[in-house]
């Protein structure tokens, strides 16, 4: 800390616009399932089109995931609902901490 010279400045809370906006309760915006699915499909298309892999390589990866027991169990958890932490299969336990990203 000796390498730096610090200046502390107080900024009143009413001037912290970003923090103020982020701290507010978000509005409940109704959505249509079709719109959400279309948005998700567009996002997936954007991601897969920018991958540095050929469509053949992506097909190979899909086939390998279909054969992989861990991938199949994770897919089941996503589609059918996740069990509690105590009930997670030992193959999937390492992925528990990333369950909301899968």
Describe this structure in words.
By secondary structure, the chain is mainly alpha-helical. It has a domain at 70-101. It is 48% helix and 0% strand. It has helices spanning 17-23, 33-49, 55-67, 69-80. The longest helix has 17 residues, at 33-49. The protein is extended and about 60 Å long. The two termini are 40 Å apart.
Chart the SSEs and their pairings.
Elements: H1 17-23, H2 33-49, H3 55-67, H4 69-80
Feature tags:
48% helix, 102 residues, 0% strand, mainly alpha
Summarize the structure in short.
This protein has 102 residues and is mostly helical. The chain has helices spanning 17-23, 33-49, 55-67, 69-80. The protein has a domain at 70-101.
Distance between the termini: 40 Å
**Helical fraction:** 40-55%
CA gyration radius, whole angstroms: 22 Å
- Approximate strand percentage: under 5%
């Amino acid at each position: 800390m000796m390498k730096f010279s610090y200046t502390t400045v107080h900024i009143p809370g009413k001037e912290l616009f970003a923090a103020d906006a982020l701290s507010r309760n978000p509005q409940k915006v109704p959505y249509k399932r079709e719109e959400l699915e279309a948005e998700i499909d567009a996002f997936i298309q954007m991601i897969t089109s920018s991958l540095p892999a050929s469509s053949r390589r992506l097909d190979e990866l899909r086939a390998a995931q279909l054969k992989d027991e861990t991938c199949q169990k994770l897919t089941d958890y996503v589609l059918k609902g996740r069990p509690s932490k105590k009930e997670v299969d030992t193959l999937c336990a390492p992925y528990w901490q990333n369950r909301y990203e899968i």
